[in-house]
Amino acid sequence: MMMGRLALVLLLAFASLQLFCFADDDNNEDDVVFYESFEESFEGRWIVSNKDDYKGLWKHSKSEGHEDYGLLVSEKARKYAIVKVVDEPVSLKDETTVLQFETRLQSGLECGGAYIKFLRPQEAGWKPEEFDNESPYSIMFGPDKCGTTNKVHFIFKHKNPKNGEYFEHHLKYPPSVPSDKLTHVYTATLKRDKEVKIMIDGEEKKKANFLAAEDFDPPLIPAKTIPDPDDKKPEDWDDKEKIPDPNAVKPDNWDEDAPMEIEDEEAVKPEGWLDDEPEEIDDPEATKPEDWDDEEDGVWEPPKMYNPKCAIGPGCGEWKRPMKSNPAYKGKWSPPLIDNPNYKGVWKAREIPNPNYFELDKPDIEPIAAIGIEIWTMQEGILFDNILIAKNEKVAKSYRETKWKPKFEVEKERQQAEEEASGLDFLASIKRKVFNALYQIADIPFLSNYKPQILDHVKKAEKQPNLTMGVLVSTVAIILTIFLKLIFGGKNQQCPRIETKPVPVVAETSDDQGSDGEKVEKAEKNEAAAAARRRRRET
């Protein structure tokens, strides 16, 4: 009897556990506030802006190589705007909120955005059919790339309770955009403990505190004091740290008129120099055009060519001694600088209490009432898919596992197969890993001052294969230099420049082409004369 009761208790406990696990595995679909798969056409459900600037054509299209549909940016060099109003505004207070969506840059992304704006209620003064870049949003999140800009934005707008103004607060040191053409999923998790977490493909890339001054620019909490705008620098304030020495006297042997260069008196004319031969001669094979009119076109002159006799000897024409640096040259004299005895330091306005200062225990971001995509891009082929707003991180993870990951794995396998078929799999794989590593290095916070330069040179290496190795080596070298300077060279180091030499372009030449200013001038005259003949024929 006792054993039977024990078995019944164990059975009930097991059943309860299974129900709990089932409920947990189901991830509570009630936590899904909004979800758009684009399996059905967006027409009639999403509203395309009727503003004149937004002429880009949205299409309901399959992702390349999949049966899965998405919302496609179909034309290059266009502005796009489309919006979907949610059934009920989504509160961002007191509970976790997850914003997640997929993008695939099927044609790459050289210059353009692929982000989403989570808009405030229409009471803020906007209309869906007039959605544009001025429409007020609560959060802007997603990839943006152009020139040295390469970041996954996270921007939130917050109202200052003292003056009622809204300010944009940008996440500092945001992660970079993946550089391939695969589908990627972007996740922003806003937590109850004032924290925001940014993930790409389920991997955490950035964590920040809404209230921390070091995480957002400008900080959400304003400074307690500000410089007094009415405070003025005193007229007798001397902020010159160094001054010319008033007691210094120019040395008697200082010759300001001595030239920088002088003739080399020791130079001797080379033997065999052809003094009587000009460097250029008339082209003997050139003939006067039959339609040349001396009255209209001027006196015809044959084009010049390099004198072949000059190639035999050391040189042609009048020989002149070469110039050399003048050892007596000193330039304009100026007195040396000395410490300024009246130096008072750098003047700063006095600090006064900030009238717009406020304190918060947690951010007060306004609710999300609509989801909008408002972008300008030079590339077509940007595909948006699986837009999700949820109140549970497990729900977002489940959608990544079931919606995004299968597509991503197929695309990776296809990319690898294409590389193997082209015979470039090893080199391409190495380069891609190096580029990804450099992008990750650029995301390191202590390199933030140098990030635009690093990204600029990585981008050059991606676009110009013949420069790849040189740029990569120089980029790695400069990163190591920065690292060593930061360790051993103190603070406030100057941002070094990475110089990349352009690849020389070899122009086609012919014997009758010159290289000096006179030949260019003659060529311009001949071109002008030819233009005159063309005009004469046309009339």
UniProtKB/TrEMBL annotation:
Role according to the record: Calcium-binding protein that interacts with newly synthesized monoglucosylated glycoproteins in the endoplasmic reticulum. It may act in assisting protein assembly and/or in the retention within the ER of unassembled protein subunits. It seems to play a major role in the quality control apparatus of the ER by the retention of incorrectly folded proteins.
GO cellular component, one term: endoplasmic reticulum membrane
Transmembrane segments: 467-488
Keyword set, alphabetical order: Calcium, Chaperone, Disulfide bond, Endoplasmic reticulum, Glycoprotein, Lectin, Membrane, Metal-binding, Repeat, Signal, Transmembrane, Transmembrane helix
Highest rank taxon of the organism: Eukaryota
PANTHER family: CALNEXIN 14D-RELATED, CALRETICULIN AND CALNEXIN
Gene Ontology biological-process annotations: ERAD pathway; protein folding
Subcellular location, record wording: Endoplasmic reticulum membrane
Similarity remark: Belongs to the calreticulin family.
InterPro entries associated with the record: Calret/calnex, Calret/calnex_CS, Calreticulin/calnexin_P_dom_sf, ConA-like_dom_sf
A matching Pfam family: Calreticulin
Organism: Gossypium stocksii
Signal peptide: 1-23
GO molecular function: calcium ion binding; carbohydrate binding; unfolded protein binding
Zinc among keywords: no
Disulphide-bridged cysteine pairs: C111-C146
Compositionally skewed regions (Acidic residues) per UniProt: 254-266, 273-284
Topology in the lipid bilayer: Single-pass type I membrane protein
Protein name as it appears in the record: Calnexin
Ranges of biased composition (kind: Basic and acidic residues): 227-244, 516-527
Region feature Disordered, mapped onto this chain: 218-306, 501-539
